[in-house]
Write a structure and sequence with these properties.
With 662 residues, the protein is α+β, with helices and mostly antiparallel strands. 42% of the residues lie in helices and 17% in strands. It contains 24 helices and 19 strands. 33% of the residues are buried.
């Protein structure tokens, strides 16, 4: 329901917008016009709605019209108006441009009007109401000339009204203004004849104006897409003064901004800038340009202000829709990632075993979990590195946040950066929508990078930046995103060898290995094998509808002696297969799949982190000929200070003989 434009705050009754006919929508869209009087009458010629301009012409406040007849308001003037209005009711045809000159009851001097009335039909096609458009003339004119002049004037106003309604309909159908803007511009061009239309949005971080889209069929291609400084540009001035502004060619040349001179180079003689505002928010500016001098007049600003207001609402709605979609996408992905998260009683309910080697690992987990230190979990495939990472998360202060897992080896190299950091729509071929990266999903929680040694070299500096500064940019965006996450990484690769082969950055290695935890292979904790066998049998037997009560001692002896190159995962798979094969109460293990002779356990090589670091430092010292400092020295190559390198050499007992051979 439109408000009284006088500012008194009184409401002028109108039907609900969805119930209005096209004719009523036309009137409603232009109800606050300061130049054209508008009203709607019922079948008894009583006022149902009236705008402030017509009320002013009648000399009576708008609310005092409502419910009264034309005769009660206009007196003897109704003798002229009523026959024309009755003709509309009886014929259902409009009456175009009839002239009236009379002295109203509220006036002492004669007034001269030209009017246009048209029928408003209900759903059955019956004329139920009449719409009236009135324009005051300065003096009476001949009827023939009146019809000609007023028809042109009314047609112009009606075209403007229809344009406003069409623009509103287009924006209501699609809030993505980048898609529908050419249609909107084409519709405005039919009324204002402008050659150029575009809109610029204000970047919240930089304050610069960023051109989003433009419609300029006859352009010379001089306009660039570079950000526009609002300090000395036409659009920036309109934003600062919070009012629409019209500029001539000479006025455009007064601005130092390149955009103003580019407009002139494109042949613009006049420019109109309309600021786009919403409550407490500056959105940007709508810009119209023409090669004709004085193409935009002050009386056009009423119409354009309404276009700009609708534009601002559509922009805000679109932003809200995008934010909602991003939140929905993030919630969906969080649920998807969290579906695999196991919730168990106890601190280490999923980690089975009580061997000294395993207890040492769990003690390390208890020690580091309460801090936010980066943890590097080392171990062979199948040793349970992910379970260790989940235990660290559950024992940390971030346990209520998300635990996001990324298997760096399972994601193609070309997609890994997008998975980690996300991308913007259009960042690359196939990027049809914005994607939230797993770094953002892990905000407030823990990010677990499994097989971190598989991260390509060109992506490692970006990960290093996240570790150091907790910030990054999505692909296709220059906006920095801050995150608060805890990183746990795992690998079964020899990172020292990767550093020596220049496949893994040493500075990233040192950032990842703040607190290394080595998970022992199953052959180093054989006393846990019987416990694991019983656990897996109890896990799989109910699923397979088996009732297994015993494991033969000879079978357990063979299982305990086996070296288990696949570690716990290999044991789990064998137990599942064994339960399927077991038909009685005893577990039947296909021992033939194992080697007929139990291999003699081979002492494992020294894969401790200290040894890997020692070997890497020695290798770099050999390459530099023992030179420690300087641009070609070992400290520079390792990304360390000279004093730090010397301290590490002392701790790792590295002597000159180790790298110089004498």
């Amino acid at each position: 329901m439109p408000t009284d434009p006088s500012g008194a705050g009184k409401l002028i009754p109108f039907a609900h917008p969805e119930a209005l006919t096209d004719s009523e929508k036309l009137l409603a869209a232009y109800f606050d016009s300061s130049t054209v009087g508008l009203c709607i009458l019922d079948s008894e010629l009583r006022y149902l709605a009236i705008n402030n301009r017509l009320a002013e012409l009648n000399g009576i406040p708008a609310p005092d019209h409502l419910g009264k007849t034309v005769r009660e308001v206009l007196g003897d003037f109704a003798n002229v108006a009523e026959p024309e209005l009755q003709r509309v009711l009886s014929t259902g045809e409009p009456v175009v441009s009839f002239e009236v000159s009379a002295v109203l009851p509220t006036r002492t001097e004669a007034r001269h009007w030209m009017a246009h009335s048209f029928p408003i039909k209900d759903a059955t096609g019956t004329v139920a109401r009449i719409g009236v458009v009135v324009v005051e003339t300065t003096a009476p004119v001949g009827l023939q000339q009146s019809v000609k002049d007023l028809s042109g004037k009314l047609r112009k106003e009606m075209d403007r009204l229809q344009m406003l309604l069409d623009v509103s309909t287009i924006m209501a159908s699609n809030w993505d203004l980048q898609q529908v803007f050419p249609r909107i511009s084409a519709r405005i061009r039919r009324v204002l004849l402008q050659e150029y239309a575009g809109f610029e949005l204000r970047d919240a971080n930089t304050g610069l104006l960023i051109r989003q889209v433009e419609d300029f069929p006859l352009g010379k291609g001089l306009l660039s897409s570079l950000p526009i400084s609002p300090d000395n540009s036409p659009g920036g001035l309109a934003l600062r003064e919070r009012t629409p502004l019209i500029f001539s060619k000479d006025q455009m040349l007064d601005f130092r901004a390149d955009i103003a001179r580019t407009f002139v180079a494109e042949g613009f003689q006049s420019l109109c800038c309309l600021p786009l505002f919403r409550p407490n928010t500056t959105l940007g500016v709508l810009v119209l340009g023409s090669t004709r001098p004085d193409a935009f007049q002050p009386e056009d600003l009423t119409l354009l202000n309404q276009v700009a207001a609708q534009f601002a609402v559509a922009l805000e709605n679109n932003r809200a829709a995008v934010e909602i979609e991003v939140l929905k996408q993030r919630l969906s992905q969080e649920r998807m990632y969290l579906e695999g998260e196991i919730r168990s009683e106890g601190l280490f309910a999923e980690i089975i075993g009580d061997s000294p080697a395993l207890r040492q690992v769990l003690d390390q987990v208890m020690t580091v979990a309460t801090s936010d230190a980066t943890v590097l979990v080392l171990g062979e495939t199948g040793t349970g590195k992910e379970l260790i990472a989940r235990a660290i998360h559950r024992l940390s202060r971030r346990k209520d946040g998300s635990f996001i897992k990324v298997n760096c080896a399972a994601i193609p190299t070309g997609l890994l950066e997008s998975e980690l950091f996300g991308h913007e729509k259009g960042a690359f071929t196939g990027a049809i929508s914005q994607k939230i990266g797993r770094m953002e999903l892990a905000h407030g929680g823990t990010l677990f990078l499994d097989e971190v040694g598989e991260i390509p070299l060109e992506l490692q500096p970006k990960l290093l930046r996240v570790l150091q500064d907790q910030e990054f940019e999505r692909l296709g965006s220059n906006r920095t995103i801050k995150v608060n996450l805890r990183l746990v990484a795992a690998t079964n690769r020899d990172l020292a060898k990767g550093m020596a082969e220049h496949q893994f950055r040493s500075d990233l290695f040192y950032r990842l290995s703040v607190f290394p935890i080595r998970v022992p292979p199953l052959r180093e904790r054989r006393e846990d094998i019987p416990v694991l066998v019983r656990y897996f049998v109890r896990k799989f037997a109910p699923r397979m509808d088996r009732h297994i009560e015993a494991v033969p001692s000879e079978t357990m002896k063979v299982l305990t002696a086996w070296s288990w190159p696949g570690n716990v995962r290999e044991l789990e798979n064998l137990m599942e297969r064994s339960v399927i094969l077991s038909e009685g109460n005893a577990l039947r293990v296909p021992l033939s799949e194992l080697r007929r002779e139990t291999p003699v356990p081979v002492p494992p090589p020294d894969h401790t982190l200290d040894n890997a670091e020692r070997e890497h430092i020695i290798r770099v010292l050999r390459e530099t000929g023992g030179l420690l400092s300087g641009p070609d020295g070992a400290a520079h190559r390792l990304g360390l200070k000279r004093t730090t390198l010397q301290s590490k050499m002392q701790r790792l007992k590295i002597t000159r003989r180790d790298y110089m051979g004498s």
